[in-house]
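#dry-run=false #mode=assembly
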Amino acid sequence: MPSLPDMMTKLDPSGAAGGSASAAPAPADALFEALLRLGDSTLILGHRVSEWCGHAPVLEEDIALANTALDLIGQTQLWLGLAAEVEGAGRSADDLAYLRDAWDFRNLLLVERPNGDFGATLMRQFLFDAWHQPMLKGLEGSSDPRVAEIAAKAGREVAYHLDRSADLVIRLGDGTDESHRRMQAALDDLWPYTGEMLTPDATDAAMAEAGVMPDLTAIARDWHALVGDVLAQATLARPDGSYMHKGGKQGTHTEHLGYILAEMQFLQRAYPGAEW
Amino acid sequence: MSREWPLWEVFIRGQHGLNHRHVGSLHAPDAEMAIKHARDVYTRRNEGVSIWVVPSAAISASRPSEKGPLFEPAESKIYRHPTFYDIPDDIGHM
Amino acid sequence: MYAQMVKSEGMKSLDEMSPEERAFQERIDRGEKIEPRDWMPEGYRKTLIRQIGQHAHSEIVGQLPEGNWITRAPTLERKAILLAKVQDEAGHGLYLYCAAETLGVSRDELLEKLHSGKMKYSSIFNYPTLTWADMGAVGWLVDGAAIMNQVPLQRTSYGPYSRAMIRICKEESFHQRQGYHIMMKLARGTEAQKRMAQDALNRFWYPSLMMFGPSDKDSVHSAQSMAWKIKMNTNDELRQKFVDQTVPQAEYLGLTVPDEGLRWNDEKGGYDFTEPDWSEFFEVIKGNGPCNKERLGARVQAWEGGAWVRDGLMAHAKKHAAAKLAAE
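#status=ok
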């Protein structure tokens, strides 16, 4: 099936690329957009984590990482399934995952960062989980029962992800000199990618206003408290820099996403319309 | 000195409220991580509701050579088994 | 099989055995399980360590050819299924290393032997997975061949090995089915998909037959392992069983087994088939397969690249145990 036209363009009636922050999208479009942000983020992170399968530092961690990836892929099926339903254009979750190009993806930049060493993977997971967990908790109270239902299921899985990633960050931060140094390097490297999940844009604001999604400023407070606490226990220094990259949520990505999609979508693109 | 993580024995209680059962072992640096590993390794198919982990080195086991003295005496105490007693059918279920 | 070419010591008759060896053999003959603290001949212990170790190595190296396609799986569901399957293989490696550890060898020692090339893993994992159909062929043929060996091993004489095999067989039940399911989809798909499926069968047929190892009907090593019940069938028996089971499955898919000599033989009640090229097998075992370097290289890299993680976590645990002790 050929890729459908970009559904996002109508979000910005002015037609200006990037849009102005004040242009509040219509509710159905905003919901579709917000669901893509959730589903695309779990998809890309699940994909990244699955790259570790067979390559982890110890068998027990190999198995644990695969569990995390499996949870994230399962959540993707639910979020993108609902996004497709909300869109009402006859697309499926698989169509959304496999037949959109990078500029239609709405995942956070954080999750497309390369795996790096185990420390970078783990730090990325922790910084994401520390957002994901309170986010899902808020989504459980969504005014949209479909959203609340998915959030409740995903929330149980993510509570464990956070428990695990926070624990490992603490242990490796406060482990050997080498593990400490590597964890600090990972943190410094990833820190500038943490801003976008904590800073609401027009879509986030519209969703919060409608009671569909929690207010990101409240999530940000939880995130900072938790991250501060864990970093302190891990004897890691919170980076000073305040500059934050953004754009993932609006479809402007790093170069990495293109390569992820080239790999992920290869079969669907090479054999259009085939069933697998 | 070996840098290898110690070995742990894993016991899991399944869904049906039975006793914890030995399911296998794994390596972990400490008990807390052993429990997490046990969750990830041994409950992938929804097998458990409770996990115990014990350092393998802390298990004391009976000696195989003492199998006779330890277990054979129980074999002769057949009166401990319900089928030892012949109860007439008219009594109903007992 | 997953433990190909494992040599045991030469075999003794009951008369030549010491009283201990004799009592040991009689326990096995009675169908009793041997447990870690029981007395056992050194040859039994050594052969088992080699066999279980090689089986465990095969599971973790076996993650790689399929792991290769996790990031390219064509649907979200296929991605999840494949990931769960490859994850199971890591689990099976773990169970088997633990079984080997009850014999007085550590997992790290076994891994060191794998990494230095002193221990082998199954030849099959040195073949490349080039298309998505290979995910089907590996599940269908490679897991199919493995199951053929593993099901009887559930009854092996060594308790921890037997229990590991029981757990593995239970978990593996979906592996072969998911592989065949992929093949069914392809065989009923587009022309290109059918070609892809046939190509995978062509490439994996003979390497799968090699998994059972060369004929061992006259081997003293096999005879000893069979007397000890750590090998349950001859390689030829299992290979014949595999062919007899697989040919009709290929026919159902509308695929052609790449063997001109394949004929049903009424007299033996099984297929006659062409033996694989055993010189290729020995080359692969020696290290000259298409992927030996990549496979072992990936394992070594994972192990060495992960050393700081294992050490860091251990250091943290020790620090905390010490701090806790000091506080008490």
